[in-house]
Amino acid sequence: MHAAGPKNPLHGITLQMMVTQLVEHYGWEMLGRMIPINCFNWQPSIKSSLTFLRRTPWARDKVEALYLDSLPDFKQSQKEGEEGSPVVPQSE
Length: 92
Known about the structure:
single chain, about 90 residues, mainly alpha, 4 helices
């Protein structure tokens, strides 16, 4: 488990927010390749993924690690979107 507090990059970020942002950035197919678990590869949905991740600590740890590794990419995408560059949405 991660330390709580405002200096923790996951402070205030829910599991649903993490999964949603990862899916928007990578798409289900790429997410399933990066973290090969069935909830991302077989009939993926936010709801089923959250159910599995809440019950499976090792899988949640992998999602949290990927989210932390992807934070610079998210910030870069937001910056590009603010500057007027077209941001192409990922297909599901």
